[in-house]
Amino acid sequence: MTVKISSSDLRVGMYLHKLGGSWLKHPFLRNSFLLEDQNDIKRIIQAGIKEAWIDESKGLARESKQKPKQEQIEELTTEELPEEIVNDEPVGSMDEEIHRARKFCNEAKEQVKEMFNEVRMGKSIDSEKIVPIVGEIEMLIQRNTSAILSVARLKTHDDYTYMHSVAVCALMISLAHHLGLDEEQTRLAGIGGLMHDLGKALMPTDILQKPGKLTDAEFITVKKHPQAGAAVLQKNGADPEVIDIALHHHEKINGSGYPDGLTSDDISLLARMGAICDVYDAVTSERPYKKAWDPAYALQAMAKWAGHFDNKVFAIFVKSVGIYPVGSLVRLSNKRLAVVVEPSVDSLLKPKVKSFFSITAKAAIPVKIIDLATPSCNVTIEGPENPDKWGFKSLERFWL
Ligand SMILES: [Fe+2]
Predict the structure, then answer these.
(1) DSSP alpha helix (H) spans, the chain
(2) Taking the domain 94-321, which CATH number applies?
(3) CA 389 to ligand 1 center in whole angstroms
(4) Which residues sit with Cβ closer than 5 angstroms to ligand 1, an ion?
(5) How remote is the CA of residue 206 from the centroid of ligand 1, in Å?
(6) Every domain of the chain and the residues it spans
(7) Are strands 363-371 and 51-55 parallel, antiparallel or unpaired?
């Protein structure tokens, strides 16, 4: 039987079924586990979590109303803890939220790097450091989804794997919201996104950092990262859903993926989400052997890959990142090329853009901001354009 108790009544030996309050504060890799360490209880209280559900069939039952020992009261009382202020600042302009997202990404990237290094050295995952990143990403998504998704897309060669982890985490959470998943599934999707490529920590670095395309033999080695990651997560007591995302994010609906060659319904929803978020972030990132694809162009291309993704989930993914994500190059009905700089609240098809190039004159023109959602505006987007075709580089300058 599960019962709700105050966090200050938690004791070693109880089986934690679920933590109360917003999951943004949760410091653990897993949600349900046997409390074996007094420090875990301390962490719960320090995270500002006031209530928890315990499963009395799997561990100690509630204590009868006896008072905790005096020395524990000081450590465990929640009353004096200030109400944690999450997301307290008012949401700023697009520029301000992009600035906030950049600052966060730089810090998060370092923490993910540390986690990879620790796993490489055979150490365990420091969930207290890593899991709060997922909560912060959730908070940034609530503030301004486009800002965090666009910033996380930008990577350098050196930090690719770490920023990719942050980006996939953000994409997973945003997709989970659009799919209407509950808080717990959303949290698992986020953690799974952050950890999905952890197995790469155990792959030879010369292959991972190879500046060119991989040979067949090297590719066979890299293909072992899902199992390697799943094993690390298993060892660290991660939730089965998180392990599943790491193990199956390279599966394809038609059965041609790896490592298990699973088909459609045998791939869990979270793993199907992982496959989409992983590929989208990989193709829209610059790699030593390929240029970054334009985001809107990537969505259009991915939609044509038959048998790779779950079509229904993909359609919702497109909505979650926006049909024309920030940074996309688009062709306007007034024969101009423009870069999407801010989504519209009302319509995915009518973002704010900066036009900068005349298609007819084939020449740059003075940059002009156009809000396509303004009722008086009769300019529309005709479709995405491939920046390579036009020889454009660093379109980021228009929105970053
Ligand atoms: Fe992967």
Answers:
(1) 38-46, 70-76, 94-120, 127-153, 160-179, 183-195, 205-208, 216-222, 225-235, 240-248, 269-283, 295-303, 311-321, 387-390
(2) 1.10.3210.10
(3) 29
(4) 197
(5) 17
(6) 2-76, 94-321, 329-398
(7) unpaired
CB-based burial label for 346 (10 Å; 0-12, 13-18, 19+): exposed
Which regions of the chain are under pLDDT 50?
A: 66-86
Cα of 395 from ligand 1 centre, angstroms: 27
CA of 197 relative to ligand 1 center, distance in Å: 5
CA of 165 to the centre of ligand 1 (A): 10
pLDDT tens digits along 359-398: 999 999 999 999 999 999 999 999 999 888 898 888 888 8
pTM of the model: 0.83
Whole-number mean pLDDT of the chain? 88
Q: From ligand 1's centre to the CA of 208, what distance in Å? A: 12
Peptide bond into 259 cis (omega under 30): yes
Measured in Å, residue 228 CA sits from the centre of ligand 1 at 11
**138 SS3 class:** helix
